[in-house]
Design brief:
The complex is a heterodimer of chains A (137) and B (128).
Chain A lengths: L8 H26 L9 H11 L3 H21 L4 H7 L3 H13 L5 H26 L1
Chain B lengths: L1 H32 L6 H11 L3 H23 L2 H8 L2 H12 L6 H19 L3
Helix pairs in contact in B: 1-3, 1-5, 4-6
Classes of the chains: A mainly alpha (137), B mainly alpha (128).
């Protein structure tokens, strides 16, 4: 069977999707924990109460469903490309998260970080291109 | 101080090693199923098949252990420091993929991997 292992645009979108969902899941977990901040966990019973309220938090379930979707996407990606390509290219989150923070949270990015982002981008391009050269040989 | 450094370094190495083993298990299981995915429902079917393989569950267990160690690291070390060292995972993944999955890692891929690592160290170290 002819198996192409190139990093296609679709795969890049899927990888960016897993990273964005990952950020979303972390946000949800943080939210679900924060909503219970008023609870003081000073006994075993209170610990149970915390878990009991946690599983009633919609944010927890939203976060957990994102984790499941991430896993499905990641498996689909791994069925298409090499592991040694998928993992470095997934570092695209080191680019998307700072950009999201700048645009939506008004955070500032230092010059050093901008140069880091450029290196990551360059690295991702090289790793993606390497799937083409290794196919030809 | 120095002892603390090596302690944190070895813990980060441990989480990355455990994660690498987990990813190897997952990738090998996926390769053994030989699925051709063109839709989300196909991908879902692949996952259902995967969940029938016991070693995939072992992989989940490994992820849990690795997460606990990582959270412990975050309570002890600075974020920028922890994330910089954590980028050694890319080297471990590359070596493991070459040995256990017989993936061919051409020089340009190594170069790309090192650029990603350098970039992550810069992003992590450049935090205010």
């Amino acid at each position: 069977m002819d198996r192409k292992k190139h990093v296609t645009f679709k795969i890049l979108v899927a990888l960016a999707g897993t990273d964005l969902l990952e950020t979303f899941a972390q946000f949800c977990f943080k939210k679900s924990a924060l909503s219970l901040e008023f609870l003081k966990i000073n006994s075993f019973g209170a610990g149970f109460e915390f878990i009991g309220m946690l599983i009633r938090s919609p944010f927890l379930w939203l976060g957990l469903s994102s984790v499941f979707v991430i896993f499905v996407l990641w498996c689909a990606i791994l069925s298409k490309i090499d592991l040694s390509v998928a993992v470095p290219v997934a570092s695209i989150s080191y680019i998307t998260i700072p950009l999201v923070s700048v645009i939506f949270l008004g955070e500032k990015i230092s010059l050093m970080q901008w140069s880091g982002i450029s290196f990551i981008l360059f690295g991702i391009i090289l790793v993606s291109l390497s799937t083409k050269t290794s196919q030809e040989t | 101080m120095v002892r603390g450094f090596f302690f944190i370094l070895s813990l980060i190495f441990l989480t990355d090693l455990i994660d690498t083993v987990g990813q190897l298990i997952l990738k090998r299981s996926i390769n053994s199923l030989d699925f051709h995915i063109d839709s989300f429902s196909k991908a879902f079917k692949l996952v259902v098949q995967l969940l029938r393989i016991p070693r995939v569950w072992f992989g989940f267990l490994l992820s849990g252990v690795s997460l606990v160690i990582w959270l412990f690291v975050l309570t002890k070390a600075e974020l920028g420091f922890a994330f910089s060292l954590d980028s050694m995972r890319y080297i471990l993944i590359a070596i493991a993929s070459a040995i256990f999955l017989k993936e061919k890692i051409v020089p340009i891929r190594w170069l790309g991997i090192f650029c990603v690592i350098l970039g992550i160290v810069l992003v992590a170290a450049g935090q205010h």
